[in-house]
């Protein structure tokens, strides 16, 4: 419990941090409206994907990311869900989110996508190398960049998208008699699609998407989620330590920055997320800042981290 608690305890008040940041003359450039400069080149979606591919290649051992065990504490629905529950992990990276979910619930099947085929291969390798080979049958990776394209039709076909899903464990196919699948997932997947998913996990992924592409990306998540299904969200919050470390010339938008390696990051306030998800059709269940103090053992400095926790539901 100790390891999980450090991720969602309230070590300080976000409003106190906001006041300090907004009154610090050295940080004023973070607050200014963004005016595009001719010196800032436009970045293509392919360049974004390549930057993240190179990022994961540099950290291919998987040691850069810790296994996110806190997710099962923060999102207990992933533990208590029904048998053959389907989860879509968007932007799976090296599998640091996938592995604890698979370990925590033997009934879950995870469909995991990423914008890099090389990253997907490394995620599969880490799953095997870490001694979790027994979990690989419930791990279904596939390539997709949800910020520029739709999810594949085998995940949710055109006739199943929107509010037409039925909340059931199986669906009618030419090969069965119309009764729900009760044994093998293979039976359930013989139709035109798998019928959508029960959960979507969007963990430190949306912040890597350019702001102008976020509305369509969230809407795409909405379309493949079953009615009543949940989107579980965690990402960078406004005035997180990482944001305040960016230099002024790394700004590529309002609250949007690019790292030296080409990867980008947006820092969310609650109202921005509230509008994005409401406009896509979601109902907000939970949305709050997680404010955590962590210590750097090497230099003894305390870091103030701000993340956003959210749960959003597709109406039934």
Automatic annotation (TrEMBL):
What is the role of this chain? S-adenosyl-L-methionine-dependent methyltransferase.
Which family is this protein grouped under? Belongs to the methyltransferase superfamily. METL family.
- Annotated CDD domains: AdoMet_MTases
- The EC number of this protein is 2.1.1.-
Any single biological process term in GO: methylation
The answer to whether keyword Membrane applies is: no
Cited PANTHER family: METHYLTRANSFERASE-RELATED (PTHR22809), TRNA N(3)-METHYLCYTIDINE METHYLTRANSFERASE (PTHR22809:SF14)
Note the InterPro entries from the entry. METTL2/6/8-like, SAM-dependent_MTases_sf
Could you tell me what this protein is called? Answer: tRNA N(3)-methylcytidine methyltransferase
Q: Could you confirm whether the keyword Protease appears in this record?
A: no
The UniProt keyword set, sorted, is:
Methyltransferase, Transferase
Enzyme class per UniProt: transferase
The Swiss-Prot or TrEMBL record annotates one GO molecular function as:
S-adenosylmethionine-dependent methyltransferase activity
Top-level lineage group: Eukaryota
């Amino acid at each position: 419990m100790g390891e999980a608690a450090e991720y969602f305890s309230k070590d300080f008040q976000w409003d106190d941090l906001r006041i300090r940041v907004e009154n610090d003359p050295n940080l004023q450039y973070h607050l200014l409206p963004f005016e595009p400069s001719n010196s800032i080149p436009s970045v293509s979606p392919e360049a974004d994907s390549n930057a993240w591919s190179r990022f994961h290649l540099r950290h291919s051992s998987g040691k850069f990311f810790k296994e996110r065990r806190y997710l099962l504490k923060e999102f207990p629905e992933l533990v208590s869900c029904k048998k053959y529950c389907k989860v879509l992990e968007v932007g799976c990276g090296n599998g640091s989110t996938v592995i604890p979910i698979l370990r925590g619930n033997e009934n879950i099947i995870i469909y995991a996508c990423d914008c890099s085929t090389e990253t997907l291969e490394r995620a599969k390798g880490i799953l095997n190398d870490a001694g979790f080979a027994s979990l690989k049958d419930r791990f279904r990776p596939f390539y997709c960049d949800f910020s520029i394209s739709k999810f594949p039709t085998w995940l949710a076909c055109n006739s199943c998208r929107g509010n037409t899903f039925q909340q059931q464990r199986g669906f009618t196919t030419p090969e069965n008699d119309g009764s729900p699948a009760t044994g093998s997932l293979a039976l359930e997947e013989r139709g035109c699609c798998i019928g959508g998913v029960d959960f979507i996990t969007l963990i430190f992924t949306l912040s890597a998407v350019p702001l102008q592409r976020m509305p369509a990306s969230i809407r795409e998540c909405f379309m493949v989620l079953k009615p009543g299904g949940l989107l579980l969200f965690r990402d960078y919050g406004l005035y997180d330590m990482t944001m305040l470390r960016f230099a002024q010339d790394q700004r590529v938008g309002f609250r949007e920055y690019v790292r030296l390696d080409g990867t980008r990051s947006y820092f969310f306030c609650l109202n921005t997320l509230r509008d994005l998800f409401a406009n896509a059709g979601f109902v907000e269940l939970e949305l709050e800042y997680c404010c955590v103090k962590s210590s750097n053992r090497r230099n003894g400095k305390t870091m103030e981290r701000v993340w956003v926790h959210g749960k959003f539901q597709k109406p039934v």
